[in-house]
Amino acid sequence: MERNRNKQKLDTTILRTSTNYLLPLLILFSVFLLMRGHYLPGGGFVGGLVASIAFVLHSFAYSPTQTLKMFSVKPFFLIPTGLMICFLSGMLPTLLGHPFMSVVWFADAVVVIGAFGSALIFDLGVYMVVIGVVLTILFSISEQV
């Protein structure tokens, strides 16, 4: 019985240690996927899934309540915020005389990102919605258990 507890503690220690290194790397990779999405495959959905996986891994290693403490607001509030950003990225072209949801590219390139347009703003909204939905589902299930 005692040997089983020590093995379980060792497994948790290994998982927690690896999570401490993997969480920032997965978040950085998700931002990379988000930024490259308006040029090549990737974007808000895939980047949001990778970021969600990072937080799910953290909740497995520690607990959902400790993962929730990492956020200043509840993940549920990312959903309407992301939807509003998506809507505003669609309205931006109409203010400039283009059809709704058409892509508008800005003249000046940003240093790290390169060409910047409304597609990246839309992807950012999708990124936030995906993280909000996945984490809201995860934390809702964990509260019921």
Automatic annotation (TrEMBL):
Residue ranges of every copy of the Na+/H+ antiporter MnhB subunit-related protein domain listed in the record: 14-136
Any GO CC annotation of this UniProt entry: plasma membrane
Localisation per UniProt entry: Cell membrane
Coiled coil: none
Main location: membrane
Transmembrane segments annotated in the record for this chain: 21-39, 45-64, 76-97, 109-139
Keywords, alphabetical: Cell membrane, Membrane, Transmembrane, Transmembrane helix
Bilayer topology term: Multi-pass membrane protein
The family this protein is said to belong to: Belongs to the CPA3 antiporters (TC 2.A.63) subunit B family.
Full protein name: Na(+)/H(+) antiporter subunit B
Taxonomic placement: Bacteria, Pseudomonadati, Bacteroidota, Flavobacteriia, Flavobacteriales
